[in-house]
Amino acid sequence: MAPLILLTNDDGYLSPGLHALRRVFAELGEVWVLAPEKNWSAASRTRIFHKPLRVYSAQLPDGSIVHVTNGSPSDCVLLAVLGLAPRRPDLVVAGINAGANLGRDVTYSGTVSAAMEGAQVGIHSLALSVDVTGEPEENPDYERAARIALRLAQELLQNQPIPPGICLNVNVPRGVPKGIKITRLGGKVWTEELVRGKDPRGRDYFWFAGEMRSSPPEGEEDTDIWAVLSGYVSVTPLHLDLTAYEAWEPLRSLERLDL
Question: Domain range holding 151?
């Protein structure tokens, strides 16, 4: 039986990156799309509990039918896994995000969070993003990025090089990649600035702004930030265990405190 591939994203079902994945991954198996009806960028692992989730069908410009929900990227994966997909997916692919998801900022990403939901339930999952920093790029090469993801997905399904509970965060650089680097998360990739202003009614408003760094960090050749800014595809294995194990023993003394 051909593998069932669940596609989702955080940019909404009309995103050209999602459509590129759908076209390319049809070569691998049965593709089933469940995506948000709106943009959920920087939604992290948001879940909808305070209102009903709706799922409906929508037609894309090429005539194909996809499934759409008012839920978040994480909701999309769980809706599919818990019974809406034709069967349990063999693979979850989230993307293609227009903009890299790198370093510690991955915890904000709806794209990465969708892949984490898949990994949490034991399904091979990857998040896919393309770097669009620098000069404005109206047409990122989604086809190239989708082909790279397809090759990685084939390896995941055929040789299963990673254990359950781990997802791959894949970032494709601008231009033609030099190759693939297996990386760790880097540090801070964005500068941050608070922009202040007044709306037409004279009320204060605040807007977060910033820029992604433009040059690879020195001495960090094993990080995702260095790899992408140096022209490589970055593949970073991620899991949800955030435990700081190095703090375990130093904190044992707290167990002796009187309460």
Answer: 4-186+214-250
